[in-house]
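REQUEST ID: PR-0412
SUBMITTED BY: lab tech R.K.
PRIORITY: routine
TASK: structure prediction, single protein chain
INPUT:
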Amino acid sequence: MRCCLVFDDLVGQDEVVSTLTNMLERDTLSHAYLFVGPAGLGKTQAAYGLAQALMCDKDGAGDGVAGSKGACGICNTCRRITKAIHPDVQSTAPIGASGYLVDQIRDIIHQVSRAPVESKHKVFILFGADQLNESSANAFLKTLEEPPGNTTFILIVHSLGTIIPTIRSRCRIVRFKPLAEYIMIELLQARTGCSESDARTALAATSNVLREAETHIKSIGRQNTRSEAIFTYRNLAALDDREVIEAAGRIMDLAVEPLGEMRKAHEKEIDEQSDFLSRGALTDLEKSHKRQLSAYQLRCMREVYTVFASALRDVVCMTVGADALASNADVLQDSTRIAEVLAPADVALCLEAIARAATRTDAHVDPKLALEVMLFEIRKVFLCHKQ
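STATUS: complete
OUTPUT:
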């Protein structure tokens, strides 16, 4: 069996694949990794792939024997790890307005001290590890430096410079290289059969995150959300106060519609697992579900903000005569019209309003309220020039 099988889809990350594969084959794995690189390069995929390589059921993989570690990618264990529902692979993201809470880290430390539920190994994935502030980092240091032998930490960050040095020094650093836009467009076309224009639009809606762009293309719900956001963008200057609030409500309803399906899937999983998981393990699973729902809602709202921001950046492209750099082909006429009356400084004011809305949402302000305020602020700029 090739132990790098689960890494085969890491496009453009040959060095990462080589590094992880060599460590698995030579049994020289570290207890802690720091996966570094911009969003959309496969850091999450690689993290779950490494967990699969440590725990796979098939052909002796994951049994702790040097040279035998690998992953089939298709067994029950591998599938559940991919779906983020394996009890011994726990993922965490910051929930505090200023980053990870100390209580979150204490919960991780408690989980580290417990025996694995099914496997012989446990993996903890910390998203946004650069949001470990001084207090939470200090609480984490000893466990990160000297975890039990059956425990692996994978910390995921966008930039090495944002991580606290004491955390960075305790991890093996694995760097992910950015992909050129044309490569991402080609990949999206090959994987989904979409046009080049649709690929550009999906990348613009998802901040050039390849994985999210692919999901966007395949998701009718996310496309409907974008369509409603674009409709509002086109007509914002003509809407009265009540209509702005109604528009925010429609966008919000579409953005969070998939949450209902996620909740049903979570309930089904709890029912399926309740017969053989302990009460503590079920509680952990419920907490994981809650974090997934919260993270998904934030991701949905960030995508809405990104749609507005990308459309406004197209306005700047039109203003400076760089039409070819515009990302949203379906709103070029609207962007051209707006560019005729808005200066780049005006667009900057709109982009600042979007950034404030994203910050408020991340700080757990009611997302519909944050969206409403953003729309009113952008409309104010538009009305000042009476398009």
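NOTES: Residues 134 and 164 are 8 Å apart (CA to CA).
REVIEWED BY: pending
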